Amino acid sequence: MNGLYDELRLAIHSIWNRRWLALGIAWAVCLAGWLVVAMIPNSYESKAKVMIRTQGLLNEKVGISAGEQRKVVERLGQTLNSSDNLAKVIRGTDLGRAVVSEAELSGKISGLRKAIEVKPDITNDYIFTITAKQPSPKDARDVVQKLIDVAEEDSIAGDRKDTRTSLRFLDKQLEELQKKLADAEAKRVAFETQNLGMLPGVGSASARMEAARAELGQIDSQLIQARSALSALNSQLAGTPPSLTTPGVGGGGGNSALAQAQGDLAAMKARGLTDNHPDVISTRNQISILKSQGGGGGGGGGSFKTPNPAYSSLQSMRAEREAAVTALTARKSALLADMASLAAKQTAEPGVSAEYGRISRDYEVLKAQYDKLLTDREEIRLRGQVGAQTDSVQFQVIEQPLLAKAPSTPNRPLFLALVLIAGIGAGAATAFALGHLQTSYATAAKLERASGIPVIGSISQMLTSEQRIERKRKMKLFFGGSAALVGVFVLLVAVEFVQRSLA
Questions:
Q1: How many CB atoms lie under 10 A from the CB of residue 154?
Q2: Dihedral of the CA atoms 77, 81, 85, 88 (nearest 10)?
Q3: DSSP assignment, residue 276?
Q4: Tens-place pLDDT, residues 342-391
Q5: What span, in angstroms and rounded, lies between the C-alpha atoms of 75 and 155?
Q6: Per-residue model confidence as pLDDT tens digits over 122-175
Q7: Each residue of 280-331: pLDDT tens digit?
Q8: Confidence at residue 301, expressed as pLDDT on a 0 to 100 scale
Q9: Up-side HSE of residue 134: CA atoms within 13 Å toward CB?
Q10: Which of 135, 323, 482, 484 is the most buried (most CB within 10 A)?
Q11: Which pairs with CB-CB distance under 8 Å and at least 24 residues apart come from 60-67?
Q12: Which residues, in sequence order, are CB contacts of 229 under 8 Å at separation 6+?
């Protein structure tokens, strides 16, 4: 412990003996350091907190999800320091007064981008902190305020601009698709017209062929039945006499038959039968025969022939059966001709069907694209109207930007104090180092340790009165120089606080 105390006394003695050197070095270091500190420009900081709110009720109704709203907020936060927005800030504040060219504007934008900071709040993604550093507290506050204004304008005008751009693009795409869709539809209609009866579906050649075959089967069955009925009717007609022999009873027999025939004719007319009906024609023929026979007089007891009504009816039925057989035969011939024509068309139907399928697919693809683009355009238009008319994105300033009372950097009083300490330390260290380089010894004990020879004693320095007076004068000068160094430090600190109050 005594050795450490002795070493400390020796160090202080060495520095004290070279105190003028230490003081000079301290002055030099302090003056240089204080000059450097004085040249550091002040930087004032202003900050504000902004919350970007989204109106979610109507947005969700039109399909704008919470995730999309969050993306809008993130995009606004990321584009606050874009070149366009920073250019607006520069032109809208005092920073743009000295800007006369695009190159100067670009330099200002680069410098301003480094001087501002936009970051989201840790606890809430919808809150952003905007910080700006400028040489003037007014400029710092104006920059932050202008950034808020520009961001609010960008959220409204930017969304509307994006909506207009998107709508113009979609309208152009819809116009082009509409032309392609019209061409595809015209091509499909022309192909259908050109290949009518060969296309897949109800009216195709295969379907018509199947229908014709089914109908031909029915006609064959009906024709067989009609021919069988006609054959049976011919057999029955062959066994039926065309007239009947009626014995004469008196002169009134012919008149009675004539009256009966006329009554039958009247009954037929009453039933609505026309003159062309076979029964009407047969009855009229019978009346004509009876009239011709009755005109010869009213003989006594002979016999006469009268038309057989059954024979006449069978003849009428045979005519109907023959007409039915003829109609069925004609229909069968027509169907066979149609089937021959359809068989020829069936050979070309696969190629036509394939081409028609390709044309239809192209048309359906274009129509699906057109419908989707039309739906997207209406959705974007509706979203744009919702955003424009309801102000879906709103800015709320939580903390207003204020004028800084003190510069954020540098902390000049601290730097001045550090320079003072560094100057004093540099002077003391230099004096101490020089004391170790010289071969003088401050105490007899140190000389004895260094030489290894016993030291008998030491003689103290004797000063005259004039030397004492000179020493006191130099001490006053030394303490005055030291006090002046501290005084300059105090003065510089005071000037700093005065400048802060004036700013």
A1: 20
A2: 130
A3: T
A4: 666 655 555 666 676 678 788 888 888 888 888 877 777 766 665 555 45
A5: 9
A6: 777 677 788 888 888 888 888 888 888 877 776 544 455 566 777 788 788 888
A7: 788 888 888 877 776 444 444 445 566 667 777 777 888 888 888 888 888 8
A8: 46
A9: 24
A10: 482
A11: 62/379, 62/382, 62/383, 62/386, 63/379, 63/383, 64/383, 64/386, 64/392
A12: 321
Tokens of 281: 């024609």
Is the backbone peptide bond immediately before 410 cis, with ω within 30 degrees of 0?
yes
Please provide the average confidence, as pLDDT, over all residues in the chain. 75
Nearest to 306 by CA among 356, 264, 348: 264
pLDDT at 33 (0 to 100): 92
Which amino acid does the sequence have at 328? L
CA distance 347 to 247: 74
What are the residue ranges of helices labelled H in 297-401? 309-346, 349-390
Tokens of 36: 């450097």
Strand pairing category for 44-54 and 127-134: antiparallel
Contacts of 400 (CB under 8 A, 6+ apart): 48
The answer to whether 93 touches 143, Cβ cutoff 8 Å, is yes
Query: 290-302 in b/e burial notation, b at 16+ Cβ within 10 A?
Result: beebbeeeeeeee
Tell which residue, 117, 122, 114, 127, has the closest CA to residue 74.
Answer: 127
- Specify whether the CB–CB gap between 96 and 108 falls below 8 A: yes
- Rounded Cα distance between 210 and 339, Å, is 9
Q: Please name the amino acid found at residue 245.
A: T
SS3 52: strand
Question: Residue 112 and residue 263: Cα distance in Å, rounded?
Answer: 125
